[in-house]
Amino acid sequence: MGNEQWAMGNGQYKVSCLLPIVNCPLYIVYCMKWKKLWKWIKTAFVIYVVAGMGLYFLQDTILFHPVKLPSDFQYHFDIPFRQIDLEVTPEKNLSIVQFTVPDSIRKGIVLYFHGNSRNINRCAPYAVNFTKNKYEVWMIDYPGFGKSTGKRSEQVLYDDALLLYKMAIARVAADSIIIYGKSLGTGIAAELATVRDCKRVILEAPYFSIRALANYYFFMYPVMPMLKYTIPTNEYLENIKAPVTIFHGTSDIVVPYKQSKWLVEKKPSTELVTIEKGLHNNLNDFPLFHRKLDSLLNR
């Protein structure tokens, strides 16, 4: 009985000792702050998960920004061109514009793979950079861009590029074909140059890989398992036999200049033309860009 009373008393003593702590204003404030912090942690976690799911399911929307055109749309440009609507399958059409020069003076054909925005209309003004140097330039729209239709995937992008090459090789020899990629198109151009011969490869504002680009923008996520597109330009570059030239601006915030530096480290024979203060889409405004491009097209 004495032991039971002692235990009870001891318990009462412990409770009575805790009462001042529980009733302490600082303790109450601490509990309230912890609850508020935990609430914020849970909210942040939910936002992180939801945003991650959005990145996964919407990555096509994030990566591609096409502008579609009606199937009966007719292009209008100030220089000679041919418009080709190639029916690959009943469900797939490829829109190609060939900016031409007379056969008597044609040096070759430039296969031009544009960036991730709009359609051929956006890059058409650059055609004169090549035609003035006596090269035809053929531009293709990716599925969902312009008048091109069909499903889009990384392999489809490669397959369409190869189809364009086959059309060109039927007209000229491989040593008269230049493969040119801008922004998104640089990875597609690099892949094509690993499976087909060409005179040279020119990459404007290239990325090391889609994974490296995703890490730049979404560093807080484990991007590799989430990506539907990888386009490892770095891996393709190492297997290109033709001479490679890269143009990149130091002030590019869309695809950082350092990604081109990384590419050169992977393939030291690559020529890097640095455009000081150049942005992602304004290299055409720099005299150095034109001097060097003209030089490449006249070799």
Helix and strand arrangement:
Layout: H1 2-22, H2 25-57, H3 59-63, E1 65-66, E2 81-89, E3 92-99, E4 108-113, E5 117-118, H4 120-123, H5 128-131, E6 135-140, H6 154-169, E7 177-182, H7 184-195, E8 200-204, H8 210-217, H9 233-238, E9 244-249, H10 258-266, E10 271-275, H11 287-297
Parallel strand pairs: 1-5, 4-6, 4-7, 7-8, 8-9, 9-10
Antiparallel strand pairs: 2-3, 3-6
Helix pairs in contact: 6-7
Strand content: 15-25%
- The quaternary state of the protein chains shown equals single chain
- How are the strands ordered across the major sheet? 2-3-6-4-7-8-9-10
> From N to C, what is the helix and strand string?
HHHEEEEEHHEHEHEHHEHEH
Q: Please report the first level of CATH classification, the CATH class of the largest domain.
A: Alpha Beta
Helix content: 40-55%
Tell me the domain tally.
Answer: 2
Q: pLDDT below 50 for ≥5 consecutive residues: which ranges?
A: 1-19
Mean pLDDT: 89
- Number of separate helices: 11
Principal-axis shape: elongated
Folded structure, characterized:
It contains eleven helices and ten strands. With 299 residues, the protein is α/β, with parallel strands linked by helices. It folds into two domains: 25-57; 65-297, 3-Layer(aba) Sandwich (Rossmann fold). The protein has an eight-stranded mixed beta sheet, with helices on both faces. Helix 6 (154-169) crosses helix 7. Mean pLDDT is 89; it is low at 1-19.
